[in-house]
Amino acid sequence: MNKSSIVTVILSILFYLLLLILYIQDVIDEFLFLLILFISLITLLIIFVVFRKKHVLNRKIAIATSIIFVVFCYEFPLIGYYTSPSHLAYGYMEPTEALEGSGIYSIGVDQFNIEDGKNKQAVEELLTNQHVDVLSVTEVNNKTVYGVKTRQILKWLHLRKEHSLEETEENVALYLGHKDKWLKSFLSRPNIGGDSAGLSLALSGRFKQGDFQNQLPIAVTGSINEHGDVFSVGIMKEKIQITEKTGIPFMIIPSENAEEVATIQKEIKANVKIFDVSHIDEAIQLIHDLNEKP
After folding, report:
1. Which of 73, 108, 167, 195 reaches 20 to 30 Å from 238, CA-CA?
2. CA-CA distance, 222 to 200, in Å (whole number)?
3. Does residue 173 sit in the same domain as residue 77?
4. Are residues 25 and 104 in the same domain?
5. In what order do the strands lie in the sheet with 96-97?
6. What whole-number distance in Å separates Cα of residue 13 and Cα of residue 32?
């Protein structure tokens, strides 16, 4: 590729990035974003036809057209998110023990998609009137929508795993070496989703096997694989808030979330002792040490 072609590539990408920044910053909406890309694509095709005999120029136009076509196709799914909710709200959900008496509590969060909310205060008032203990309200902007769109495309391309209850159940069962009725029963409860209960379920299974004793209430969140490795989960701020509201003094989280959680603790000054682990065995040792303390 010669210098002129490289310049064409750079200029095309910069043009796209400029539009993307304007969209992310809510300066333009998805329709105008895609419309500009589409008009640019049509314009380039017309120029390509008009100057088809000028091979040097045509090569540059062909490169620019190809780039704009690819990004237009990549961004086109944004149209599907036109009816996205105006706000996302998170509410309190009572922590639950998969095995009663284990002291291992799974932390879940209620999520509400609000259509046409005027502002955060109005959304909070609406949910409070519906007897929802609101933890946080987030306005859905272009950046939020773009993140959802990108994650969906990665799932379509099999470049990002979709964490499901079935996957959580399978990983916990493989780790424990068997599948018990209590595991399926817990995952069949309403409002259970994602993979963040994996660590608490695996710990509950180890507790049932008699691998450790526990006399303390401990909140646990984190996903796992079949080897017992612990991975990050989302909505950590709200999970910490729920742990504190419930009065649970200890919380175990994935090490991958440690930096994020340290920032959150400084922000909300939660009165919860939080420990991070990267493997289930670390969590078991931690629980043992906490129970040994006078």
Report:
1. 167
2. 7
3. no
4. no
5. 96-97, 104-106, 218-220, 250-254, 273-277
6. 18
Residue whose structure tokens are 């209850």: 165
**Does 99 lie in the same domain as 220?**
yes
Residue 204 in domain: yes
pTM of the entire structure?
0.81
Please count the structural domains in the chain.
2
| Sign, Cα dihedral of 215, 219, 225, 227 | negative
Domain span at 16: 3-81
Considering the domain architecture, whether residues 58 and 103 belong to the same structural domain is answered as no
Same domain, 177 and 72: no
Q: How wide is the angle at C-alpha 149 spanned by C-alphas 143 and 153, nearest 5°?
A: 145
User: Residue 104 is part of a domain; what is its CATH number?
Assistant: 3.30.230.10
Per-residue pLDDT of the chain (294 residues; tens, 9 = 90+): 678 889 999 999 999 999 999 999 999 999 999 999 999 999 999 988 887 777 767 888 999 999 999 999 999 999 887 667 889 999 999 999 999 999 999 999 999 988 877 788 888 999 999 999 999 998 889 998 998 898 888 877 876 666 677 888 899 999 999 888 888 888 888 777 778 999 999 999 999 999 999 999 999 999 999 999 999 999 999 999 999 999 999 999 999 999 999 999 999 998 999 999 999 999 999 999 999 987
- 15 token code pair: 């043009």
Q: Are residues 64 and 169 both part of a single domain?
A: no
SS3 (DSSP) at 164: coil
Report CA 252 to chain centroid distance, whole Å.
19
DSSP character string of 181-242: HHHHHHHTSTT--SSTTHHHHHHHHHHHTTS----S-EEE--EE-TT-BEE--S-HHHHHHH
Burial per residue of 241-252, b for 16 or more beta-carbon CB atoms within 10 angstroms, e otherwise: bbbbebebebbb
